[in-house]
Structure formats: structure tokens, C-alpha cells
Design a protein that fits this description.
196 residues; five-stranded mixed barrel; two-stranded antiparallel sheet; 0% helix
Length: 196
């Protein structure tokens, strides 16, 4: 079984601390390839597109990246610098992958994804990937967005008496989009609406 992970290409001298000083010494890299067909991504797939419209997303792969200096302080890209990101397209979604796709980052404070660029589908030696540029590190996602009510489902769960003593229950759903893509979505079982 061949594993293909996300790639991140950072120019030399591009990592800086919070004061804009170029990082020196040892650097800790935290990076993960996120496959939405296997596990849920941060948030609930709500997003704000480039026109500030509220949309829902269908992910085609994501990458989490964080860098720390030797004292544990976060590092990011120097102003005016970009890093190339390459995210593998899940095999379950390859047939429906578009030639270009919006790129998003997760805003942890607001709990939504923010559209911030475009990635293109490229055949690389590691296989088909979406390739784009980022100006910062966080969770970065390749997604198509929309609000088609004909394709949306809203479900409300009500816990029966046999489960009323349980707390912190989470419902995980594997949602299929037209039989060509699967997303994993999670929601607490607390009576809130679940959008799929």
C-alpha cells in the first residue's frame, strides 16, 4: 500500500517569528494530511466565500501545518512570501475533481472556513494533487462551495429516554455526494440541527 501525503514547499529564510525576525536554530514542524473521506475536518463545513457569502463546502483534501521555534513560539511566513502546498486528491473523489478549486483556511476564532485562493489539479510524481500557494500556516483545505437546497439535508436527532443519562455523545455520518464523493461529518447529539 503506497501512502501519499501532502507536501509543503517553503522558501529558504521565509519562516519568521511574531516580530518578523527570521527563525534560526531548531524548528519543530507539525504537519498532517487530512482526507475528508476518512475523518472529519475542523468545524462543520460552514464557510465564507470571497464575496462574504455563507456557503457549505465539499472538501477534496486538506493539510494542517504549524511551525514552532526552539522556545515553542509559533512561526509563520514572512510578509510578501508564499509557500507551495500540494494536497493529494482522495481516490474516491478523483472522477469529480475539477481542474481548479477554491482554497480555504480555517478561522478557529469564528469557526468557519475562509476562501483565500485557488489551487489547480496537477499530475505529480506522487499522483494527482491540488497545488496552490499560501501566505500563512493553519488548516488549509481544497473545496467546492455551494448552497443548493435541493442537495442539502437537515436532520434533527432526539435522544430517547434510554440515552438521556449519557453525555458528550457525537454522531458521525458518512455523507455521499452523488455517489462520487464521501465526507465524514460529526455533530454533538444535543438537539441541534445537523446539516449534510
Amino acid at each position: 500500500c503506497r501512502r501519499v501525503g501532502a507536501r509543503l514547499i517553503i522558501p529558504a529564510g521565509a519562516l519568521v517569528d511574531g516580530h518578523g525576525k527570521v527563525a534560526t536554530g531548531s524548528i519543530t514542524a507539525q504537519m498532517a494530511t487530512l482526507n475528508p473521506a476518512r475523518r472529519t475536518l475542523p468545524g462543520d463545513y460552514r464557510a465564507s466565500d470571497s464575496g462574504q457569502n455563507a456557503v457549505e463546502m465539499l472538501s477534496y483534501g486538506a493539510l494542517y501545518a504549524r511551525f514552532l521555534d526552539s522556545s515553542g513560539n509559533p512561526l509563520n511566513l514572512k510578509s510578501g512570501t508564499t509557500a507551495e502546498i500540494r494536497v493529494p486528491i482522495p481516490i474516491e473523489q478523483l472522477a469529480s475533481a475539477k481542474p481548479s478549486i477554491p482554497m480555504w483556511s480555517y478561522d478557529e476564532k469564528r469557526g468557519v472556513w475562509i476562501e483565500e485562493g485557488t489551487a489547480t489539479k496537477q499530475n505529480t510524481p506522487q499522483g494527482p494533487m491540488y497545488v496552490g500557494k499560501t501566505k500563512h500556516f493553519s488548516t488549509l483545505n481544497m473545496d467546492v462551495a455551494g448552497n443548493d437546497p435541493a442537495q442539502a439535508t437537515c436532520v434533527r436527532f432526539q435522544l430517547g429516554a434510554s440515552l438521556s443519562g449519557w453525555t458528550n455523545l457525537i454522531m458521525r455520518a458518512y455523507v455521499s455526494y452523488g455517489g462520487t464523493a464521501v465526507q465524514v461529518k460529526e455533530t454533538p447529539l444535543n438537539g441541534d440541527q445537523y446539516h449534510a
